[in-house]
Each structure stands twice: as C-alpha cells, then as structure tokens.
Design goal:
This protein has about 325 residues and is of the alpha/beta class. It contains eleven helices and twelve strands. About 40% of the residues lie in helices and about 20% in strands. The protein is globular and about 50 Å long.
Length: about 325
Amino acid sequence: MKVGIVGPGAMGCLLGGKIARAGNEVILLDHLPDRVDIINQQGLLIEEKEGIVRANVLGTLKPEDLAPAELIINCVKAYDTAIVASLLQNLPPGPFFLTLQNGVGNMEILGERLDPGKILAGITSHGATDLGPGQVRHAGQGDTFIGYGFFLGSHDPSLDPQLKRVKELLDRSGFPTQLVPKIENLIWSKLMINVGINALTALTRLPNGKLLDYAGSEEILEAAVKEGIRVGEEKGIQFVYEDILSQVKKVCRLTASNVSSMLQDVLKQKRTEVDFINGVIMREGRLLGIPVPVNTLLTNLIQTIETSYHDAIREF
C-alpha cells in the first residue's frame, strides 16, 4: 500500500519506519527542509530491543506528493491539525485519512475540510521517543484500535473492506489492531491514559513507569484520571476498559522507559498538547458543573511552563 505520513516526529517516524519495513511505499510530509534531507539520506532509524533497524522512506515538503497515497496518517501535534487539514483538502479524491493523535477534537477539525466519510480515527498505546531527526526509540508495546471517525450507526466495522485493509496494514507492520464501531469511546479511553501520564511526567521529568514508584505522583495520577472518568461518564462516554485506572497504570508499566510526548516537548522548550488533554477535562468539567481541581492545576502548570521558557532558571 502507498502510505503518507504527516509529521515525522516520534510516532510518525515509528509508524512510517515499521510500515515501510513491512513492504509498503511510505512518503513523509514535513515542513523542515533540513529534516527532510536527513531522512532522505539516512532513512528512518528505529531503536528496538533487538537493536537498530533502518527503513527507506521518501521525505517531502510538498503536500501534493501525497496524492498517490491510498492512506494518509496524521501524526502532527493536535494544535497543528487545522493546518494539516488545509494542506490536504486540495488533494484529489481518493485517500483515506487516519488520525492517531493525542487528545480530543482532531477528527472534528479534519472533518471540517476533508470528506467525513473518509476520515478514520484511532488510538495506539505504543510508546515512541524522539532521538533526533529521523531517529526514534520504540519504547513500549500497546493496544491499537481504529474505526470511522464519524459514527455510522449499525455499521459493522469487521465487514468494511477499507477498515480491514488498514487493519491488515497495521497488523503486518507490528501494530496489532482491533476494529471498533464507535471510535469516540476509544478516543476518550485513550484520553484518560494521557490525562494520567503526560502532564505529570512533564512536571516531574520522570519516564512513564517511574510515576508509580512515588506515592505523591501516583496519588495525583489517580485523582486526575478519576476526574476524567466522571466527566466522560456525564457526557455519555462508554469507556472500553472495565477498570480505567488499572489500564492507565498498566500502560505506565508497559511503556516504563518511555519519555512521554509532553515531557519531550517540555525538554525541547516547545508548545505542548495539554489544551487537548487535561485542558479538555478542565473545560468540560466547568461546562458540566463538575469539580476538576487536579486537571485544572495540571493544565495551568503546564501552560505556565510552556509560556515561560525564556524566564526559567536553568542554573543556580
């Protein structure tokens, strides 16, 4: 299959590299000329437990180069989704679009400019750590689920030929995937994992697994997730995990060495996705009249950090 990847960050490189190594043609769309040059010269380097593997892909700065793709996977930060939708809306009809991004709201943003019937959405708990341009560490295995971004009523995803093709692609590439009929429930289930892990790792500078080694961080994780569960249930979300808090801790253990995407952003003094994660719980909690003090505090602290890099004390 011809596959386009938008955003060669940690997850984009992991997906692109493993999909290419499974025998598919992969094109990576980027906005940084230097990084495109590096990727075209060295390929993608993936650090697995067994060692480093290399994958040949094509890097490009031109959105039109994705026109031949049958599937385009969006891996940019949530705050850049609207830009991606604008870039892709002029492509000829044909490709399906899959978002595997963090947070809530990405598929709705894509649906404003792209054909809603061709938007797929999903979640994955695989861990990916950025090691530099075109280099990534596969830092943990996890579950992957996909479905149509906009609910199709009684539609059975297991009978849909397009979903089956994408599932087979991901399966063969090392991402065992399950098909689901209502992806919103999955996205909110993944949101709970990010709510518990990402901001807390960014504040403590700890890898995922270490959050469970300290009573204070584990207590905050539990409180943030419980607030999110209450908000989700009030919105009518049917979480896919029977015990969400246990699932969050399971992901911490499965991705113990992973440096979360939010911590990677803070270490690089970049904007984070907190508005699309803990910020969602903060805003929805206020609308619903549900107290969410922990998510409010986490959101405000991360927002303060990302807007004050220039004032931060680095040495004393």
